[in-house]
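Moderator note: this is an archived Q&A kept for reference. The question asked for a predicted structure of one protein chain; the sequence and the answer are reproduced below.
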Amino acid sequence: KRQMWRRMAQVERVQDREDRYNAYISAMTMAVVAKNFTENGWGLTRAPDELVKELRTNLHKGMANNPQEETFVNVIEGTLRPLFIPNTLLNAKVLRTLKPMHEEWSQIQLEGALS
């Protein structure tokens, strides 16, 4: 309940009228159709420590190798481009490792995919 009040306060601060309306509709829809991912709502849940360590190591190595800037993506706003560290194999490992956690939450067998 507290998280929903917090979300509504965030929505109220949206300046653009249409964006505020869309945020309100999105929040209401999620409140009706999505159950909580954790006992605390959409809070944090822990990934396996070894996986987090591997992600962190890959990030540090990628940053040390002068990563390229992300190409233009319509939904990323602002003048600074995000940095891009290629890690296709690690991404696939993350999806495989976390899939059982998401299947347990959703109570359905999920089909793996990369977007």
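Archived answer notes: The chain is about 55% helix and 5% strand.
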